[in-house]
Amino acid sequence: MMKRETIIRFDELTYDELPADEKVLVDTAVDATSRSYAPYSNFRVGAAIALDNGEIIAGSNQENVAFPSGTCAERSACFYAHARYPEAKFEKIAIAARGTDGEFTAEPTAPCGACRQALLEYEVLAGHDVPVILMGREKIYRLPSVRSTLPFAFSEF
Ligand code: THU
User: Fold this and answer.
1) Ligand 1 centroid to residue 98 C-alpha, Å
2) pLDDT, mean of each 10-residue run, the chain (157 residues)
3) Which residues, at least 6 apart from 124, have a Cβ–Cβ distance to it below 8 Å?
4) Which of 11, 19, 69, 157 is the most exposed place for a label (fewest CB within 10 A)?
């Protein structure tokens, strides 16, 4: 038997410490929370994806009375991004969320497992690491890649 471990290294930083392009991406994710349709959970998530063609695609969670037919912000954004620009590679992703009190979450909000797997598909297609920026009121986390968010990702190969 071997004892193995996996370590995730990431940055904890403030909004002011972000470079200009990442501020824009976080701002876009923040703005997207206002277009969330979340009458059931009242949890509003926004995601923004910077593409290598210069576009930023935003998405928000869209709920449905026939739960669980809705979809998360991250999958709204990544599926639309690839449907709209199938040739474009993902560069960076930012995520923000407002809780039931309407305030942005104090802690950074991380994508659910299904979204991590969905986002990973596009990191693989991009052929390089795609940093993931998780916005919180009190701090921001910047993970170096989608893969770093999902140890033991599913793969057919
Ligand atoms: N949600 C997201 O948009 N992204 C995630 O990664 C996890 C959860 C949404 C789904 C649902 O509309 C609401 O947040 C509460 O779970």
Assistant:
1) 11
2) 96 98 98 98 98 98 96 98 98 98 97 98 98 98 98 90
3) none
4) 157
